[in-house]
What we know:
Blueprint: H1 5-16, H2 21-65, E1 66-69, E2 73-79, E3 84-85, E4 94-97, E5 103-108, E6 112-121, E7 127-138, H3 143-149, H4 154-172, H5 176-181, H6 183-190, E8 196-201, E9 206-223, H7 226-275, H8 278-293, E10 300-306, E11 309-314
Antiparallel strand pairs: 1-4, 2-3, 2-5, 6-7, 7-9, 8-9, 10-11
Amino acid sequence: MSDQEPQTQEPLELADSTSEGPQVLERATAIARHRFRVWLRNVQFSAYATLVFVLLALGFLWPRIFIVVPSGSHAVMYRFFAGGTVTNRVWGEGVNVIPPWDSLTIYETRLQQETLKFDVLSEEGLDLGVEVSIRYRPNKEMLGFLHQDIGTDYFKRLIKPEVEAHVRRTFGNRPAYEIYASSRDVLQELGQIPVLGRLEESDDDLSSRPYVIIQELKLVDIELPAIVESAIADKYKQEQLMLEYRYKLEREEKEAERKRTEAAGIRDYNIIASKLNPDVLRWRSIEATLELAKAPSSKVVVLGGGQGAQLLMNVEPSMGAAPAAPAAPAPPGTAAPPKP
């Protein structure tokens, strides 16, 4: 109300001061200054209000205009006024400036890993607990179609059901014992998961382009029923017993062969010894004794010739050769030994 009082009193003051020129001019100047100050305050209020509104709008729209795509990720744009999801282009890492009415959905395109644990039935109907590990990544070329057809929770909608169905098909066609025995074949078949893609019509036929690239499907653990585990343990126990018996049999066969060889050697020795003449053996004994007497360290050599015949020799070099005792006459039919 104080700003409007000079306006209501202005005609009266001007009418009363028509005779006073300088005072009227001063009052008019004061009124003009007062009006300017009022206008300036109104303009300042409007400017401040506009600035606050712009800052609030900018703070609200900033995250919708300046979108930061982190490392190892790509984004898909949804255009509100231009046809929806963009399928022929993806936005890369860094800062991306977009209109506030559009939006970017960020997908991580690095290699990712998830673990699934569920139950499957074998060919006999036994319940098997299976745990598998999945390594996957989205296909960047199909990221727009993945966002349009499936969405950000593509693992639960696409990968998980398909992997579970593939594992159930793999284990359902085999008995429980075969799964454990032929684990290499099971792992090889388990890795051949079908392509999870989008069917597209070409000129001649239909082609499939994968939404997601599954690089590895690995079997982490398998829980067999107690009855199957006990049967497998008993089987391996019997196999170990069989190996033990086989080893014992081989050892006994080797021992029998050794004894046969030893017996054959004793038999041959006895045959050869029985064919030798005792006189020849006595002569060979005398030759061996003479050779022994030639050694420098020999002192006395005593030779038993059988039937009371003995030969006593002192072969010490310092004392000279002792006289030899008379030897028994050679048996008839043998040559006499040469004289030394």
